[in-house]
């Protein structure tokens, strides 16, 4: 059994470096690039970020910022950490759950920002397909995180 296990691990190696570590490095480089481009776009081209500014576009800019940070970056990191962190399974589960909770919190703040923007500019909420798909996605993600918390604490 041990020999077969070593053989299956060797099939995932390229030039002595595990493919999973190459993918992890690539994913982290993408993480840095996405964060940099997002901040340049929002701070330089879209006037910045603020919850309390009189310029309402700064409030609107919080929506894409928190959605990308929460859904794309932090939840992607949560997915990777479960298989790439060299720790005990229980530690990986807690870290995985913690990152998913941060991702959910970030997406909820992004929803709050867009609803606050709609309220402050006297626009009607939930008129587009984008808004309905977004609400559904955050709801299903919240359901996923609640079930994850249940699984981690019941195991």
UniProtKB/TrEMBL annotation:
Entry membrane topology: Multi-pass membrane protein
UniProt keyword list: Electron transport, Heme, Iron, Membrane, Metal-binding, Transmembrane, Transmembrane helix, Transport
Matching Gene3D superfamilies: 1.20.120.1770
Pfam entry (one): Cytochrom_B561
Domain called Cytochrome b561: residue spans: 26-155
Classification via PROSITE patterns: CYTOCHROME_B561 (PS50939)
Localization per record: Membrane
Superkingdom to which the source organism belongs: Eukaryota
Primary localization: membrane
Regions crossing the membrane: 21-45, 65-85, 97-117, 129-153
Cofactor(s) the record lists: heme b
Presence of keyword DNA damage: no
Keyword hit for Electron transport: yes
Sections of the chain in a coiled coil: none
Protein name, entry field: Cytochrome b561 domain-containing protein
Lineage: Eukaryota, Viridiplantae, Streptophyta, Embryophyta, Tracheophyta
């Amino acid at each position: 059994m041990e020999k077969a296990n070593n053989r299956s691990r060797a099939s995932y190696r390229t030039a002595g470096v595990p493919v999973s570590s190459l993918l992890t490095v690539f994913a982290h480089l993408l993480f840095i690039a996405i964060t940099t481009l997002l901040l340049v776009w929002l701070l330089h081209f879209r006037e910045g970020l603020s919850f309390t500014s009189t310029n309402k576009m700064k409030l609107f800019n919080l929506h894409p910022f928190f959605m990308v940070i929460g859904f794309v970056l932090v939840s992607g990191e949560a997915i990777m950490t479960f298989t790439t962190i060299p720790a005990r399974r229980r530690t990986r589960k807690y870290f995985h759950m913690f990152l998913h909770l941060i991702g959910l919190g970030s997406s909820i703040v992004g929803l709050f920002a867009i609803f606050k923007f709609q309220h402050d500019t006297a626009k009607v909420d939930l008129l587009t397909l984008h808004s309905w798909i977004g609400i559904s996605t955050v709801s299903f993600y919240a359901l996923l995180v609640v079930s994850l918390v249940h699984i981690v604490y019941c195991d």
